[in-house]
Amino acid sequence: MKILVAGLKKNSQLLRLQEEGKKRGHVVHGCLASELKTFASSEEFIPEITGKSLKSYDLIYLMVSKRRWEWYMAAYYLKKTKGTIIVNNKVIDPSFPMYLTPVSDYFRQREKRLPFPKSVVIYSSKYVEYIESKISYPMVIKPISGRQGRDVIKISSQKELLEGVDKILKNSIACVIREFIPNDGDIRVFTVGYKAVGAMQRIPKKGDFRSNISQGGTGINYDLKDKEEVRRIAEKAAFVMQTEIAGVDIIIDKNTGKPYILEINPSPQFAGIEKFTSSNIALEIIKYFEKLYETTG
């Protein structure tokens, strides 16, 4: 099988996928999202990347950022005309056009009774009083399309809220504000094909509430065998959001023991979970690709 990982190039995650793929007889390539070029005329529609034809791939794993419409159109065209397997397929499925923003995520999670913190999405700092009427301090604010814990701020006053929202809206179209839930670090559950294949608890570095590995956090193995509720929530969340390969972030309220979903990441990094646990995530992904290929082939 010939596989393209769109959105990864020359990093450790791609190397791991190439390593496990090669062991099982597959070729795995990577490319940057910016390498896509599309030629269109009344006779032709040709999406391609630098030096390679997209038509040559049996499977394309989309790890490009949200709302990369040109990539979605290219993937839709390839699946329709050539039968190319697309992961995560939801981005080109007309049945799931709503799954591309946090608000639609919240809507679906509420509809399916999945627990998540109270949240507000705004486009202007003039709605501070509205936020305060819905959520008590402390709060957590972040850009609507933030990744890896960047620009995530914990705030405890109206002054900090105004300053934080203004700062975020300088570089983001919208801002997400959610209630702060006291916890001992979040739990990243990695799901492949809607099944949990590994988990770790991420511990924030001293003086920081963010537990992202990229922000200095550390990880320890999190055994799901006796944490059935966490497993169930993670797998259900991945399925509800139709995210075939997902990093589901969950926190446990220190005071009540109740779990909450923080995020369902459709382009999860797995270097950390492989480093801090015995999980072979790259192999699980390749095996899932094989299953899709056998099913469609």
UniProtKB/TrEMBL annotation:
Positions of the ATP-grasp domain: 106-290
Taxonomy, superkingdom: Bacteria
Sample GO molecular function, one term: ligase activity, forming carbon-nitrogen bonds
Keyword list, A-Z: ATP-binding, Nucleotide-binding
Pfam families the UniProt entry points to: RimK
Record's GO cellular component terms: cytoplasm
Protein name: ATP-grasp domain-containing protein
Keyword ATP-binding among record annotations: yes
Species whose genome carries this gene: Candidatus Woesebacteria bacterium RIFCSPHIGHO2_01_FULL_37_10
Entry-linked InterPro entries: ATP-grasp (IPR011761), ATP-grasp_RimK-type (IPR013651), ATP_grasp_subdomain_1 (IPR013815)
Xref: SUPFAM superfamilies: Glutathione synthetase ATP-binding domain-like (SSF56059)
